[in-house]
Design brief:
Keywords (chains A, B): Hydrolase, Magnesium, Metal-binding, NAD
Number of helices of chain A: 9
Strand content of chain A: 15-25%
Structural class of chain A: alpha+beta
Family (chains A, B): Belongs to the Nudix hydrolase family. NudC subfamily.
Largest sheet of chain A: 7 strands, mixed
Enzyme class (chains A, B): hydrolase
Number of strands of chain A: 19
Protein name (chains A, B): NAD(+) diphosphatase
Order of helices and strands of chain A: HEHEEEHHEEEEHEHEEEEEEEHEEEHH
Region (Disordered) (chains A, B): 220-242
Helix content of chain A: 10-25%
Oligomer: homodimer
Chain lengths: 406, 406
């Protein structure tokens, strides 16, 4: 689940200098997408229009974040014909400028997200960029598109014999499709959470094929057909570049903290964890803080343990709803290992576990977040799909030893 | 500027296991704050009230993001008396619940941000937490507080003989105060950019001493004194935890890309760089993407170069307005070094420079973003305060060599 993904074309051979020193790069679950996002083509309506129309295009449908899937391991895709009743036949035909001019705040806009080109599959080509196009479409029934969305959902289920798999903590998908789902879920969620402008309070609209939201200067709501659109008040997001227009990702630190003597790991237990579960500590990074500082602050706040050095290990997209998990390994200060849960009472418990105890938990079958506990064990840890598990594994594998790993 | 900060108490001795393998942890400019944020006390009005009232409290004032400063290297602080005309004598006296009930969307709320305790300076104590309290206050004249803010600004300048230093790219402050400024700037900016709720379009209010914004369920605007506040429509951010309530930080990747043979560095030139300037490539991380993937995507999109392994080096808060710079070192794939600026035409130029050329630029005096160019040189690079410079230095220092440092 978390080894380097073998068919990622850009991963070099093992004898590169970096791998000599650092071992194989760790690609965690939800990363390793097979798609080239070609992000610079998202404002090119001719490209989007051609990609949307091409018979090789795949459409991942999400109903309230549940993806269309064959089963819990494999996604299913719709075709253009399936979604045209909702999106219209040529949603990318207008230029972006025309699209913004046509903004009508009373009409719900179905989000059609362009995700990228799968360069392993050839069929579609635009300029020098080749590969089958992937889109994601939000088919959640809401606003003025309730009925259309419902009939698209029913039709695709009947026609294809597939269903929408509840997406909450969906950690069973095959790795490349997990990355596709993560991208779709995170961006559709961001669009759904931000219908209004934080700068002026007016309704915003989706542009750049689902990857940007703007606060249009005019609105056609309530305007008779053919008449000029209503002008809206000035908005600060229209002056220069505003980060409010772009998707939000929340950096989160997650850390395996090793005792000063390098023999134990600090694990904590959240209040809603399943019985027996412990995991690495984690928390949101704050403004004006480095990753390394956030690791020290969160560890001390949650457990009372003082951390000295911190090294960043790897990262994991976590689309619930929009986190970037930044995995780090830190070492407790020699006199800073006393556990104190009294600062920020977020954890129910925190403990130092010996490497052997963690190794035993690692060897036993992992248990998912919602799965029932069927056997008694001293310690249960998250599955390999979680970066928490990979950080613990890195420590047990000798990440801290002075000998470079391959 | 970017070495480990010597008085940071939690940095361990150099013989820790991590430092044996990885060398000293790199603390970049804008990190290394001397303040303990004690973030769990931000909702405790008794703590905030006591800290605000304590004679040891320092107040950093920002006028339109320009901080009160003695000169371009040293901040200046106001006292409680200086800012009471704007904030009132006890802004934290009400509980958070009372504060939310008193919400009036017609009244501009001056943001009083609690930043943390400087544990090196004793005087104030609350429970077991000791240290002088630091606040930041947004004194930008705006909304219903224009006149009060203007008189606070004039009074403090006259009384203290200090001024507000324009904060755009302020890279001359001493390192600990740069971190304090970064925290203040990022959070005041976030509050100022988000007066409205992205979920429902209504006005929001600041709570948790400037570190959280909520969409209150009621509003006193236009309500006669003593009458019940107006109820507002339901808002999705009031159900469970919403990331829209918390500060936004945008993860950004910045990368020193080394040629496959380990002898050259890839540097690019933005369209608005000063003459002769080149720097490492950089770009925003996208939802559903790992740091390592973002490094590969951005490098290919901007320069055409294909990157194989990526290792994360260190991080830097960058408060313009709210970026987290995540510094990485990557290696080009053996057959992927051809430069192509035609994908995303963001760069004016990109080039492979030999280590010697970069070393020469590194040795010469650095030139700041706005500084005039006074001598002819082949290559100019950003100063040591920029993580770009530190990434290049790490490569030149043999970060990629197989021999562990220290």
């Amino acid at each position: 689940m978390s080894t380097a993904i073998p068919d990622l074309p850009l991963l070099a051979t093992d004898d590169s200098m970096l791998s000599r020193k650092f071992g194989r790069e760790v690609a965690n679950y939800f990363s390793g997408s097979p798609l080239n996002r070609v992000s610079f083509l998202r404002a090119d309506h001719a490209f989007l229009n051609a990609a949307f129309a091409h018979p090789s295009a795949s459409f991942l449908l999400l109903d309230n974040y549940s993806p269309l899937a064959k089963d819990t391991t494999t996604l299913a895709y719709a075709s253009k014909e399936d979604i045209v009743p909702l999106t219209g036949p040529e949603p990318f035909k207008p230029t972006e400028e025309e699209h913004i001019k046509s903004f009508n705040s009373a009409v719900t806009q179905p989000i059609v997200l362009f995700m990228g080109l799968d360069e392993k599959k050839t069929g579609f080509q635009y300029r020098e960029y080749k590969g089958n196009p992937y889109f994601a479409v939000d088919v959640t029934p809401k606003g003025s598109i309730v009925e259309k969305a419902k009939s698209v959902i029913e039709a695709v289920k009947t026609k294809r014999g597939v269903s929408f798999i509840p997406g909450a903590r969906l950690l069973t998908l095959n790795a490349p499709e997990a990355a596709i789902y993560a991208q779709a879920r995170a961006l559709l969620d961001w669009n759904a959470r931000n219908p209004f402008c934080g700068g002026c309070g007016e309704r915003t609209m989706s542009i750049n094929a689902g990857t940007k939201r703007v606060c249009p200067p005019t609105d056609l709501a309530g305007v008779p057909e053919g008449a000029e659109p209503k002008k809206r008040e000035d908005c600060p997001t229209r002056h220069g570049i505003s980060n409010l227009s772009f998707p939000r990702t929340d950096p989160t630190v997650i850390m395996a903290i090793v005792s000063a003597d390098g023999t134990k790991l600090l694990l904590g237990r959240g209040k809603r964890y399943p019985p027996g579960w412990y995991s690495t500590l984690a928390g949101f990074l704050e403004p004006g803080e480095s990753i390394e500082e956030a690791v020290r602050r969160e560890t001390w706040e949650e457990s009372g343990v003082h951390v000295s050095r911190v090294v960043i290990h790897s990262s994991q997209p976590w689309p619930y709803p929009a986190n970037l998990m930044i995995g780090a390994i830190g070492q407790a200060a020699p006199n800073g290992e006393t556990i104190n849960l009294g600062n920020d009472p977020e954890l129910e418990d925190a403990k130092w576990y010996t490497f052997d105890e963690v190794r035993e938990a690692m060897g036993a079958s992992s248990v998912g977040f919602g799965e029932p506990v069927t056997e008694k064990r001293k310690l249960r840890i998250p599955p390999q799909t979680a970066i928490a598990n990979r950080l613990m594994a890195a420590v047990l594998d000798g990440y801290l030893s002075a000998t470079p790993k391959m």
